[in-house]
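Data card: per-record layout.
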Amino acid sequence: MNLTSRLPNALVLPPGRMITSDEGHGTLQPLWLSDTPPSTELWPRLRAEHAASGLWPLLLDPLDPHDTDFRPWACGETSPERMSSPADHNPQALLTRWWQDYTATDEDDDQLSADERLAVTAPFGQTWPGAAPTSTRVEDPDAIAEQYARAFLVQRPHARLGLVSAPRGADALATVGWTGPLNYDNDTAKFSAVVRDWEDRFGARVVGVGFDTLHLSIAAPPNHLEDALIIAAEHFAFCPDNIWQGDHLHLAAYAEHLIDLNCWEFWWD
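The structure for this 269-residue chain is written out next.
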């Protein structure tokens, strides 16, 4: 069944089609994908309809905007059958384990010395600092998400609209079978579990998804360095490439960049 039948007739979508996952027996169609970019006002209208429709809107970015295959979305390069449920995973247990894995020193296969590796995650080193405190929201998470969606489309005018049947944005990542963090873990539901937790603690909303990128709006960012450092540690555990291969090669510099920032963007190599 076409997911768009759940939407009111007055809400006009661009032309689009259901996408069949290339995994399994060709029976799963977890995604409706537009053929053309949406208007900047469509994502906010669809998000407002989510409570009634059960469809979470995603702004989908391709691996190469000049490639007619629009990978991974238009060609069904997704793996929904592989994913567990986000409810099966404890987000803090995941972050703790990932932190331990990524701060460990492997003497047989390590481009950094032990001291250099510890410097990346200073002042915490190998000690997991625990979860950042829940922020006091001063802005409406959905309003911030709508602002970010408009800005996202201005910056990426080639992005297309996706619709996924999911109770919340975090769950849409697993439902659609997105495999962006595949080089770290092939069960996206684990990452969805962490994003669920961020939805609750920081007013995060899933707005955009690329081949190996994730774009969240944030209603309650840290406003001083102490909290930003602990959130930066969560980001490192969630997506170490943000620091290992980003513009901020140490946790402290990355934390400064998070202060008062209303969007969190992640990239996995």
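Known properties of this structure: The beta strands are 16-19, 31-34, 55-60, 160-165, 205-209, 213-217, 263-267. The chain has a mean pLDDT of 94.

See the next section for split statistics.
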